[in-house]
Amino acid sequence: MNTKSIATEVSTGCNCGCGEAIGRRAIYRPGHDAKHVSQLVAELFNTIQDGGKVTPAAITSAAKSLPSAALQAKFRRAAERLVAKAATDMKEAAK
Ligand SMILES: [Zn+2]
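Above are the sequence and the zinc ion SMILES. Below is the predicted complex in structure-token form.
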């Protein structure tokens, strides 16, 4: 009889939140690391659209849910572009 729990063989699922099963050592389904980054960027975008402010602390906190420094850097670049663009748009709207 196999007493090994199946739970140790299967991880909790893809880290992007899609809930798809992934391999034991995997963190994401293929391509879903980029998807996760875009999701986090989309959340920041929604915050801005709702009139909220995206602070550097909010970006740092969102970046922490990404598992690697490379993904965090990718997210930060995208987030900073988004914040810079939002600031420009606001200036344009105020004209
Ligand atoms: Zn996924």
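The CA atoms of residues 8 and 24 lie 8 Å apart.
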